[in-house]
Each structure stands twice: as structure tokens, then as C-alpha cells.
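Appendix B. Chain record.
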Amino acid sequence: MSGYVELHCHSAYSFLDGASRPEELALRAIELGYPALALTDHDGLYGSMEFAKFARASGLQPITGAEVTLATPCTDEDVEVEMGAETDAPEYHVTLLAETPRGYANLCRLLTQAHMESPRGEPRLPLDALLERSEGLILLSGCRRSPLQAALERGAREGEAFARRLLAAFGPRNLFIELLDNAVHGDRVRSRALASLADRLQIPVVATGNVHYHHRSRHRLQDVLVAIRNRTTVDDSHELR
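C-alpha cells predicted for this chain:
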């Protein structure tokens, strides 16, 4: 596993979602032979300093990032899909990694804007704000809630148009299409469609795990957290889990 680096990873600072502390994730990464690890908690850098200090002291390169919730994903210049206006509207996520000090500053500003301009506890970042402040940032297209995935499901033309907007803002060296397979129904079909789009537009791909705990035994705690977050029972939250 020494050739792999996890670039999409949640800790307990992703409230009621991640089930492991940052130091647990770092120690497990070292056990697996990872040279580096990214911490990408939801809409914030809450555990980044703690994680970075522990990782450096342990000989692991820390990568600072966040999984950001978008407010208004757009498929092209004339078509917009308003997200977050209703409580039952789906969430769209992208993964951002800070490559440089400038990128870290931009990530902080983007997260601040998302929290300042959204209802309390529901940060949403406008897509245009992300596209305008891309310097020093690496964008991964996101998990199953990726706006690129959603656009692609509406049609190949919309998917390509959305991908081109991301490519124009981040450039060919800082945009990656994210592929993951967590044995969830549809993962392979989604990955094939995204990989095909990446081939057509010559966008590189990256594999991630969308990690939420450091060891498989911790999944029981994560199941409970998801049930609490959705105000339901563990038995009734199977699809959500």
C-alpha cells in the first residue's frame, strides 16, 4: 500500500459522520505505509492543526483540505440548478486540497464565506466563488454527491460542460476526477462513466476511499452516528449508511 495516499478522509471533526480521531487516522496511515494523508472534514478545518502537528511528529506528511458543500452547481453558462434553497434539496460535495500557502489562505476564505452567507449549521458555497478563488488549490470532483456526477447523470453534454468549467478555473494540473468504490450499489457504473468523461477531456483521475474511520471495527460507531444525524434508528438508516 506504500504507493497509495488517501486524499479524502473524515475525522470525528465531521460531526456525527466521522468516527475516528485525527491521530487515530494518522497512526493507521503509518501502519499501512502511507507517506502522506489528507484530512478533508466537512466544510471546515477544525481538526487540521491537531492533525498536522501529530502527523509531522510521527513522520507522516499531512495534507490540509476539506470536503465543501456547494450551493449552486452549474452545468453550463446558461443553466443553473439552485441547491440548498429547500431543506430536502440534495447536497453536492467537492474535495479541496491546499497545495500552497496561497491555496490554504483561499481555502480558509472560501470556508468562511460558506459559513457567513448560509443559515447556521448549513454552510453552502456558491460555485462561482469557488471558481474565482482557485489559486493554490487542488480540486477533486467529489464523492457520490459530486456535482459533476449529478451533471453527468443528466446527460453527457451537461457533464462535459460542467467539467470544462472546472477545468478552465483550476487548469489541467489541479483538477482530478475522483473515483471511489465502497461496495455501494452503483459505484462501478458511476466510476466507469466518470473515467470515460476523464478520457474524453484528458483530465487525470485519482482513487479515494472517502474514509470515515481508521479501522473496520469502528463502522458500528459510524452507523450509530449516521442514525443520530438523520434522526432515525440504526435499522431504518441502512440506505443512508
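Further analysis of this model is presented in Appendix C.
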